[in-house]
Amino acid sequence: MSAPQGPTDLPRRAWWSVLKRTFSEFRRDRVQDLAAALTYYAVLSIFPALIVLVSLLGLLGREDTAALVGGITVLAPAEVRDLLTEGVSGVQRVGGSAGLMAIVGLAVALWSASGYIAAFIRAANVIYDIEEGRPFWKVTPLRIGLTILVTVLLAAGAIAVTLTGRLADVAGKAFGLGSAAVNAWDVLKWPVLALIAAGLVMVLYWAAPNVIQPGLRWITPGGLLAVLLWVIVSGGFALYVAYFGSYNKTYGTLAAVVVFLIWLWLSNMALLFGAELDAELIRERHIAEGGRVEQEPYAVPRDEPEPDSLPG
């Protein structure tokens, strides 16, 4: 019997095994701790990333850039949006120097922002039960390249969602459609946001682990699950904070920061849970080819780890 080439080739019983192992590995890999580590690096990375983002969006005004941040964090709690918008405004007020120092500052900000990507690479290898075999000269350009790509995708997506609303308004007036064009775009922008989120997840899932993936696909089962979980978790947490939470009473002036940290942690758990599902789908293919369930590593590495670093 040939190995399944994709998720749709798996029988129902195999899917049940994959889901059970996904939950089991989620606990075994201590994903909640990995998500906490990613949250730490996200905090260290997010404001350098804002510097890079503001540099990319230098042609836009302050109001437009603030609107873009709102577009990126549309499902986040209000405290998170306010905190990030204030951070962007602070970066814009400081402004930038010209010439060589500006380039050096941007390079330092980019390297600092890539700390999150480096942490995600390590977490992805834990999820796939494989050690890092790629040398420094491969991993470093990868983390920088992924940081640039993720930042550009976020900026492009936010621009598409935020500024094209104005274009819809102009088109509606030009063609006599009135507010119909804007109303249509208000509905269509959500699938656009979902596609952008899926693209970001796809890039991370494909490039981060030291594993040869079956192929570069826009949407994987794990990526789709991660996006759905993130939407549910972000929306649910935003409602909880708005109507049931007592963070202001408990933490006072630190409430916005605490809400931001919890939201990041929940978002990272959703991202890593999706990665666990994709990893278990690869393990299932390995089992179908005659491999043992407990064999690790079960995926083909991009670069072979050192023999003394292999698990087991």
Automatic annotation (TrEMBL):
InterPro entries: Virul_fac_BrkB. The keyword Cell membrane applies. It is found in: Cell membrane. Keywords: Cell membrane, Membrane, Transmembrane, Transmembrane helix. Residues 293-312 are annotated as: Disordered. It comes from the Bacteria. This is Uncharacterized protein.
